[in-house]
Known about the structure:
- By secondary structure, this protein is an all-alpha fold.
- Among the domains are: 40-148, no CATH class; 152-240, no CATH class.
- It has 20 helices and 2 strands.
- The protein has a two-stranded antiparallel sheet with strand order 1-2.
Amino acid sequence: xxxxxxxxxxxxxxxxxxxxxxxxxxxxxxxxxxxxxxxxxxxxxxxxxxxxxxxxxxxxxxxxxxxxxxxxxxxxxxxxxxxxxxxxxxxxxxxxxxxxxxxxxxxxxxxxxxxxxxxxxxxxxxxxxxxxxxxxxxxxxxxxxxxxxxxxxxxxxxxxxxxxxxxxxxxxxxxxxxxxxxxxxxxxxxxxxxxxxxxxxxxxxxxxxxxxxxxxxxxxxxxxxxxxxxxxxxxxxxxxxxxxxxxxxxxxxxxxxxxxxxxxxxxxxxxxxxxxxxxxxxxxxxxxxxxxxxxxxxxxxxxxxxxxxxxxxxxxxxxxxxxxxxxxxxxxxxxxxxxxxxxxxxxxxxxxxxxxxxxxxxxxxxxxxxxxxx
Length: 374
């Protein structure tokens, strides 16, 4: 067991440490990449890390948020950044005394835990669980990036995956608790609730299973969302603060595939072919899970895919990461095949330079760090 954990530790942290090389050593030039402002602040100020640090400092106090703004935003916008990740940042900062470094520590810790639970499931299905876990860590490159910066995604995906794992094991209370914590991390986790509900109805009606009242622990998920909504309303004095914040993030329902409207929110970014591949992959996942025994996997993937097709959001890459564990585990035979293994080796330099380049341009325009670091 210790050897397995050691290998998973290496799989998790070696790629991330490689990403940090030009920043830790404060390089001004890294091969063909120019770093105008050398240092780890290139990591710290990647979106949306600074927003979560502001929440960690203020906990949605509008006056306090206004004093920390580095871009012209309505302070109420910050309710779009749910509190669990900022709470963990604040707790770890009691030890580190540095909010940005704490956010990184939290993210790295849950990246490791996520890989542990993923490996455990991969080992049941695949002859190559270490390779599958490595692939899960570095591909797509966007996932390697969110593992390496201040981001709630590793925490979110860990909680979502653990919640569905407990649900399939019929440990409904634990599934509800993990799902509730996931909802407190990001709103997307709320799609677990209709997934759990649909799988329960299917078992009761189609499989003629007796109804288990313990399944009602699924109501923890909407209950957490209701509590958050009330808290946000109390803090901001506006019951519509959350919905308005989500509209600002382009997370509102629209006509299916409205991402491809060149006159819409993403005008000027006409090269959206990559989104087509993501929709194709999500469609393959849903079809691949139709007859799966893990019914919560199927329904979560189905409802979440429908949601992603109906929001005019360009960043489908990041928003679809929640489906990644199910995708790799469903098609593990393909992803552990020899062509894919060799193909990944050839692709690693591209992933590496893509990640560093992305982190150099995906930065908040912070010029005064003094208020955020205090």
